[in-house]
């Protein structure tokens, strides 16, 4: 078996990246393109041995990386961003081939955002400081005039486990702040889309990142994931994915009390009020089919005020009919395939059970050829039904109506999740009232998917634990230290 494969004209190494070297496993798994089912290659299949080697490499590299001056860490991260930009087209075509997302999106948005992830956290690192503050207490001399200085100490080796729906962008959303913080990293990409993580290892090495600071190991979740998340030398774990997997990770990490950041599933509402710009609201709703609905933040539950529901539905159907589903490498395609036959079967199962229970498919409701699922809108769904309460992760939306603002908010909050919400309204006061009541980590008003890296990101309820982004990322990847210094000549006369 060759250690390299050629994907869309790009050479990709199929081995792990551990300690600055390529390491092969004796076993492999098959990577298949969702576009046409073609086999892309055999990928090294890591298990406990590779996990232990990667963590040992990260542990050995940590002391030197942790004391590397901030300016030097930032310089290297900018060099990684430069490498991403130089290879942007290669990264775009490989990721599209590997996970089926639109090539035009990878070229214009996703891969530029990958480079931005590194640049942003490199720059944020250089301005990461709290102002010192002075302690004053009343009724006692103790603590008067003492200076408090807060610092961020690198925590140690970090395990980052990332999903398949936006593989490189979501991986670097974790890798960049972890490295900027002074941590070393073991990255475990999803087995359904591992290829651009391998390319990232090459880019990082070429940028001068020291050996062992970034390690990439591939494999099936339980086979290598448990060994990584239970390792006593791991100091941080960040995971994006499903709730069941998160529970397994949390149980695995519990013995060592390893801090976790978990960004999990969603069942987000899109609330459309009668005073909304209806064309804008319809545009926002149709946008939820982005990436074939394989977006954790997607507003899959359309909640429309009943006085405009008929007109909203008419315009939605008309606009959705203009979407083009097909080969994601084609510039005119709007919706590509689902990632894997197992995911396609899961989506179809949700829809079949929903229609059997009385839901009506206004559009879609069926498979296409290959791994494509038709954009679907279901009505006549009960609030307590599976299709309303559980994450489908495919191009399937539901539509419910509400009479009053209070009812709309109640329906919006009535799931176990709380990742995001979208509100369409022309009334600023209503926007303030509603957003204050919504249970969500992110709320968009008259927009969707606007994400500033300065902002905190994460979910409530079963949608996650913790927040990352801006200083929140450094708070997670570091051990915060407060140093208290007595004023000159101070004595505690207690």
Description:
- This protein is of the alpha/beta class and 494 residues long.
- 38% of the residues lie in helices and 21% in strands.
- The chain has 15 helices and 24 strands.
- It has helices at residues 48-66, 70-86, 88-99, 103-126, 167-180, 195-206, 221-229, 243-254, 278-286, 309-320, 341-356, 386-389, 405-413, 428-437, 470-477; strands at 4-7, 10-13, 16-18, 21-23, 28-32, 39-44, 133-135, 146-154, 158-161, 185-188, 214-216, 236-240, 260-263, 269-272, 301-305, 360-363, 376-379, 396-402, 417-418, 420-424, 442-445, 460-461, 464-465, 478-485.
- It has a seven-stranded mixed β-sheet, with helices on both faces. The protein has a six-stranded mixed β-sheet with strand order 11-10-9-12-13-23, sandwiched between helices.
- The protein is globular.
- The protein starts with a strand and ends in a 9-residue tail after the last strand.
- The model has no long low-confidence stretch (mean pLDDT 95).
């Amino acid at each position: 078996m060759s250690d390299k494969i050629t994907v869309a004209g790009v050479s990709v190494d199929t081995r792990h990246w551990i300690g600055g070297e390529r390491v092969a496993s004796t076993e492999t798994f098959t990577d298949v393109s969702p576009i046409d089912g073609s086999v892309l290659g055999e990928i090294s299949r890591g298990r406990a041995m590779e996990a232990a080697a990667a963590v040992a490499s990260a542990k050995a590299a940590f002391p030197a990386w942790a004391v590397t001056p901030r300016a030097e860490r930032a310089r290297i991260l900018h060099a990684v961003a430069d490498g991403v930009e130089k290879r942007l087209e290669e990264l775009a075509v490989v990721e599209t081939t590997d996970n089926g997302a639109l090539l035009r999106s990878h070229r214009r948005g996703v891969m530029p955002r990958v480079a931005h992830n590194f640049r942003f956290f490199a720059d944020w690192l250089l301005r990461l400081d709290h102002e010192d503050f002075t302690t004053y207490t009343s009724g006692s001399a103790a603590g008067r005039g003492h200076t408090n200085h807060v610092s961020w100490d690198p925590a140690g080796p970090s395990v980052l486990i990332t999903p398949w729906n936006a593989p490189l962008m979501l991986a670097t959303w974790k890798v960049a702040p972890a490295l900027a913080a002074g941590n070393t990293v073991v990255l475990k990409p999803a087995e359904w889309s591992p290829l651009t993580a391998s390319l990232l290892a090459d880019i990082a090495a070429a940028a001068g990142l020291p050996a062992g600071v970034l390690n990439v190991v591939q494999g099936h979740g339980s086979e290598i994931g448990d060994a990584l998340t239970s390792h006593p030398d791991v100091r941080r774990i960040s995971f994006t994915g499903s709730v069941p997997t998160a529970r397994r990770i949390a149980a695995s990490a519990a013995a060592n009390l390893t801090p976790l950041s978990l960004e999990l599933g969603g069942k987000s509402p899109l609330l459309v009020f009668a005073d909304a710009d209806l064309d804008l609201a319809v545009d926002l709703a149709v946008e939820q089919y982005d990436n074939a609905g394989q977006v954790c933040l997607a507003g899959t539950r359309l909640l429309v005020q009943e006085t405009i529901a008929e007109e909203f539905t008419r315009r939605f159907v008309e606009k959705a009919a203009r979407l083009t589903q097909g080969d994601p490498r084609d510039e005119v395609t709007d919706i590509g395939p689902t990632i894997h036959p197992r995911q396609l079967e899961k989506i179809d199962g949700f829809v079949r059970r929903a229609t059997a229970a009385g839901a009506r498919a206004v559009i879609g409701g069926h498979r296409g050829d290959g791994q494509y699922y038709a954009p679907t809108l279901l009505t006549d769904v009960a609030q307590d039904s599976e299709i309303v309460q559980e994450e489908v992760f495919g191009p399937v939306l539901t539509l419910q109506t509400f009479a009053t603002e209070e009812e709309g908010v109640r329906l919006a909050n009535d799931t176990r999740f709380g990742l995001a919400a979208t509100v369409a309204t022309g009334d600023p006061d209503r926007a303030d009232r509603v957003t204050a009541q919504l249970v969500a980590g992110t709320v968009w008003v008259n927009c969707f998917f606007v994400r500033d890296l300065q902002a905190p990101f994460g979910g409530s309820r079963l949608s996650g634990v913790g927040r990352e982004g801006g200083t929140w990322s450094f708070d997670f990847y570091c051990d915060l230290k407060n140093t208290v210094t007595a004023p000159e000549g101070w004595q505690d006369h207690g």
